[in-house]
Amino acid sequence: MTDEQPSLSVGEVETALREDIAALGLLTGGFRRTLAEVSYVLAHRLDLVDSEDGATAVSLAKALLATLGTLMRGDGGSDDDAFKAVAARMSSPVGDSAQP
Question: What are 3-9's contacts with CB under 8 Å, separation 24+?
Answer without folding.
Answer: 8/44
